[in-house]
Amino acid sequence: MSNLEILRRVYLDYNATTYLEADVLQEIHRALETAWGNPSSSYKAGKDAKEIINTARSHVAEMVGGQSDDIIFTSGGTEANNMVFHTVLKYFKDVFPSVDNGTVQSRPHIITSNMEHDSVKLPLEHFVKEGIIGRKLFHE
Fold first, then answer.
1. Nearest residue to 77 (alpha-carbon basis) of 42, 111, 122
2. Which letter, b or e, does each residue of 22-42 get, where b requires 16 or more Cβ atoms within 10 Å of its Cβ?
3. Which residues pair with 110 in a beta bridge?
4. I need a labelling partner for 51 at 20 to 30 A (CA). Which of 57, 59, 76, 109 fits?
5. Residue 132 predicted with pLDDT over 90
6. Is the predicted pLDDT of residue 140 greater than 70, yes or no?
7. Contact of 120 with 82, CB cutoff 8 Å
């Protein structure tokens, strides 16, 4: 499919995925050819992969006005959402340890809409069922 054909289409699912620009595809292809290694390893392909990831992390940090150490790459939205929930729940427990007396009022409450993606809705339903969050404030 040519870029012109893509531009003529109306595509409304950008939350899920989108086509890649030609220069992005080219960069991905280059990385897969030259830096296919495990970035946690010590061999050349791994070191090359780590360098590419660190450069990308620096570029993203610069774009959003952050620090490289603050940028975390995940495999996708579901992993990122789960990371946020677990981080928030750990923070709540660490900051309010004396509040945990087992009552509904001592548990964090998370407010969402009835239009949430399953990657948000299902973990929250699990947390409610397990008594980790006090009550479900979103609609089914």
1. 122
2. eeeeeeeeeeeeebebeeeee
3. 136
4. 76
5. no
6. no
7. no
* C-alpha dihedral sign at 31, 36, 37, 43: negative
Q: What is the residue type of 85? A: F
Q: Output DSSP code: residue 98.
A: G
Spatial separation of the C-alpha atoms in residues 111 and 55, rounded to whole Å = 36
Token pair listed for 133: 């969050």
Which tokens sit at 130?
């397990």
The DSSP line for 38-59 is -TTSSSHHHHHHHHHHHHHHHH
Q: How far apart are CA 87 and CA 69, in angstroms?
A: 16
Q: Say which DSSP state 117 is in.
A: -
Q: Which tokens is 115 given?
A: 């239009």
Model pTM score = 0.70
